[in-house]
Amino acid sequence: MKPGKRNDLTTADRGEVLDTRRIVLDVARSEFALKGLAGARVDEIADKAGVNKQAIYYHFGNKDDLFRATLDSCYEDIRAQNKAYAAAAPVTPARNAVRSLIEHMFDRIEKRSEIVQLIMDENRYQGRHLTNTGLISSSDDPLVDHLRAVFKVGEAAGEIASGIDVEQFFMDIIALCIFYFSNIYTVSAVMDRDLAAPRAVRARRRHIVRQLMASLSPAASADVG
Amino acid sequence: MKPGKRNDLTTADRGEVLDTRRIVLDVARSEFALKGLAGARVDEIADKAGVNKQAIYYHFGNKDDLFRATLDSCYEDIRAQNKAYAAAAPVTPARNAVRSLIEHMFDRIEKRSEIVQLIMDENRYQGRHLTNTGLISSSDDPLVDHLRAVFKVGEAAGEIASGIDVEQFFMDIIALCIFYFSNIYTVSAVMDRDLAAPRAVRARRRHIVRQLMASLSPAASADVG
Amino acid sequence: MKPGKRNDLTTADRGEVLDTRRIVLDVARSEFALKGLAGARVDEIADKAGVNKQAIYYHFGNKDDLFRATLDSCYEDIRAQNKAYAAAAPVTPARNAVRSLIEHMFDRIEKRSEIVQLIMDENRYQGRHLTNTGLISSSDDPLVDHLRAVFKVGEAAGEIASGIDVEQFFMDIIALCIFYFSNIYTVSAVMDRDLAAPRAVRARRRHIVRQLMASLSPAASADVG
Amino acid sequence: MKPGKRNDLTTADRGEVLDTRRIVLDVARSEFALKGLAGARVDEIADKAGVNKQAIYYHFGNKDDLFRATLDSCYEDIRAQNKAYAAAAPVTPARNAVRSLIEHMFDRIEKRSEIVQLIMDENRYQGRHLTNTGLISSSDDPLVDHLRAVFKVGEAAGEIASGIDVEQFFMDIIALCIFYFSNIYTVSAVMDRDLAAPRAVRARRRHIVRQLMASLSPAASADVG
DNA sequence: AATGAATGAGTTTTCATTCAT
DNA sequence: TATGAATGAAAACTCATTCAT
Predict the structure, then answer these.
(1) pLDDT at position D138, please?
(2) Which residue among C136, C141, C202, D39 is the one 20 to 30 A from D148 at the CA level?
(3) Nearest-CA neighbor of D29 among D143, D121, D109?
(4) Quick check: helix, strand or coil at residue B42?
(5) Both D56 and D14 in a single domain?
(6) How many domains does chain A have?
(7) Radius of gyration (C-alpha) of chain A in whole angstroms
(8) Which residues of A touch C1 (CB under 8 A)?
(9) A85 touches strand F (CB under 7 A)
(10) Is residue B3, in this structure, part of any structural domain at all?
């Protein structure tokens, strides 16, 4: 009578069930992103999803598990997008490939900042809601693999400095892109500027690309010594 | 009935009054940092501060205003630290000066991540709790000013590429340093590594310094085209 | 999540639901009448009604809305009683009809002074809790209509002075009856008599009837000039 | 160290003390009138009076005693006004004297409805805050005495029906005048008219005078039989 | 699975009153 | 007396969760 998760239904109304789960997860994602795990309300999620509150408990168990499932679905989305990008993106010319990836990440994060918010909130709980299901180890991550291939080519061609740690560089991309959007209000206030304005966003995008590309330059690398 | 702030007392018991406010703010800072505005409990803050709960309402009005005051005190701290650093740090040699600043910011954020957590949470509320009191516009910010001076010298000496936007570069520093610590749990999980381990932290610190320094190289800048 | 009112249930448990609302309203009526909106306690109402406090919030929203609903139910009762009286009362002979009405109002108010107390308290809040639902405009009021008919007959028969404003006269009845019961303690003190004593009540009733009837006399009216 | 009341000071600052008491009582009167004993706030009274909250406790003991003192001062005012009116008003011609008294009461109550509100609230507490100090027994009441004299004259002159109970008639005046102002919001709502509008007030005043005068007519009295 | 109602433990806030100087 | 600070009890309201149908 109280099933934890449920992706194995075979009954006729499976369609509806999946719909309920899906719509609740969608609403939960935006609510949790907006207000955090502590600030979001089960009542409100139920209302906005147009389902009875009890349905949430039936399908997800409790609030924490709903958060878990929501996080999971975020990671699934991320993985799917990463895979899709890696499958389509050319590896060469190397510098172009890197630049494309940076721009893609920036744009993706700008568009889907909900996911970022949600994941950032999870850090408050020290990763307690992370499941094995949703995670990909970076070794498997299609984007890191892609970048690794690109770097290999680029280093060989002398376009990219050798010795740069791919995972660290990937984190640089993520960090620079995420930070801008997740701290836009406080930084705007401190800087007394509207960082959400389209031209400010474009300027930041341009800068991040240039910054990251410059750091890959073989000449620069020698300079750092 | 409701005292705003109070830095003009001259009576003997000034110590106690300030103590109450101060200790509450200290506790509030760590509680809000740890659990967020929504997750923190006024009761718990009062308990941990060893004061009567009503004392919090007497001194700060309500939970939101307490959060406001706490944010304020964070910004004051930041300002004070920035000012102190800028006053003491040499401008030349330029590359050393930049490197020092980066390392300083990394270390500061590692040590005082509470403040960062608090400010990041405020973005959830769209800057609603920011007061004019606590803020510094970046034009006045001692660190940005310092960096500006360093860049000027560095550009003249041909050590730093010209045309780099100081504020954007400053944001790069902040972004790279903050991201690592504020997302350490989820990134650790995704990467299947313990990013909190001392050697991982050291490695990241080294990388960030190298990354940022490389991006300043005049040679690299030419490379970006 | 928050059910407004609910008079359309068809399920078997309708009884219970209505019971909860009904019993809460009953208790609320006497508590609010006794202590006023400000003085009544939600906790106490819940206790006396034998329901969980949250049930009150579930059904009524908040204390103010509970007061609103209570007021509403009072006005419904009044309307029902007015309608019942008007339906049964003969219009003629006119003076008898008026006398009956006065006595009925006096007796009703003596018996149901709760309602009066409640409505009087609402004046403190400037009618803020009045809803359209509960109200009857006096033009529709069965008692005023009845009185109008009686006056018409009475005037034609020369038993009642012509030119007397029916609504004003109706207010006279209400005022005289209500004042006695709602100010019984202070007036008793000032007069150093016990106005609540049965014989005092009877004397007042007799006086009010005589007073009002006298004022209707055609002869008296001429006297006023 | 905690004096109950205090009207026997002989120190130099007696002036100030009386001022404090006076201003607190004034503010308390309007606050209690507006919000009732339960709804008024000691904090707010202190604030509006511009005195320290503790001063209220020093001078009046507690909230209930403050209410008591406020009630007291209201009754003192009433007595003073009654005495002044009775001293100045002519007894004859009788009907004019009655009419004047009615109009005076109506106008007084319209102007000083605060006092009425306060006293009406006290009925909620069953006269528990009434002190002997503030009260006058009706036998002493200058207005009732005055009215008694007027009736005597009027009866002798055949202008006023004999056998009318003076105290009952006095209550009629009070009831009709007070009811209008103390129930103006709810009655306005029920009647769908604005009873606070100047012309409505004037109409009511005119009606009340006529109503009461008519009831005194010897001819009418015979009619009542 | 869906729904309305219920519930108990919390959570913020209020308020009269007292303390200490 | 005057004042800022403190305090504990209570009050309104919230919220995750469960019940019963």
Answers:
(1) 53
(2) C202
(3) D121
(4) helix
(5) yes
(6) 2
(7) 21
(8) 43, 46-47, 53
(9) no
(10) no
For residues A54 and A148, membership in a common domain is answered with no
Q: Please tell me whether residues A50 and A138 are part of one structural domain.
A: no
| Cα–Cα distance, A208 to A106 (Å, whole number) | 9
- Contacts of A123 by beta carbon, 8 Å cutoff, 6+ apart: B182, B183, B184, B185, B186
Same domain assignment for residues D57 and D75 = no
Task: State pLDDT tens for residues A196-220.
Answer: 999 999 999 999 999 999 999 998 7
A67 inside domain: no
Q: How far is the CA of B136 from the C1' of F10 (A)?
A: 43
pLDDT in tens, C54-77: 999 999 999 999 999 999 999 999
Q: Are residues C105 and C169 in the same domain?
A: yes
Place of tokens 């500061």: B108
Q: What is the CATH number of the domain that holds A51?
A: 1.10.10.60
Q: Does C81 touch chain D (CB under 8 A)?
A: no
Residue A36 sits in the same domain as residue A101: no
Query: Which B residues between 189 and 208 have a beta carbon under 7 A from any strand F atom?
Result: none
Q: Is B202 an interface residue toward A (CB < 8 Å)?
A: no
Is C1 at the interface with chain A, CB within 8 A?
Answer: yes
Distance from C-alpha of A109 to C-alpha of A105, rounded to nearest angstrom: 6
Instruction: Give the residue whose CA sits closest to F15 at C1'.
Output: A41
In a domain, B156, yes or no: yes
Same domain, A101 and A123: yes
Q: Stretch B45-62: mean pLDDT, rounded? A: 96
What is the pTM (predicted TM-score) of this model? 0.89
pLDDT of B129 over the 70 cut: yes
Question: What is the DSSP annotation of A24-60?
Answer: HHHHHHHHHHHHHHHH--HHHHHHHHTS-HHHHHHHH
pLDDT at C109 over 90: yes
CATH label of the domain that carries residue D140? 1.10.357.10
Instruction: List bases, strand E, within 7 Å of protein CB.
Output: 1-9, 11-21
Model pLDDT for residues D134-186, shown as the tens digit of each residue: 665 556 789 999 999 999 999 999 999 999 999 999 999 999 999 999 999 99
Chains C and D touch (3+ CB pairs under 8 A): yes
Arithmetic mean of pLDDT, D100-111: 97
Chain A CB contacts of B168 below 8 Å? 203-204, 207, 211
3-state helix, strand, coil in chain A (%, to 5): 75, 0, 25
**D43 touches B at CB < 8 Å:** yes
Phi, psi of A130 (to 5 degrees): -80, 135
Banded pLDDT at B202 (limits 50, 70, 90): very high
Supply the pLDDT for residue C12: 37
The reported pLDDT for the residue numbered C73 is: 94
Q: Is residue B197 part of a domain?
A: yes
Residues C97 and C204 in one domain: yes
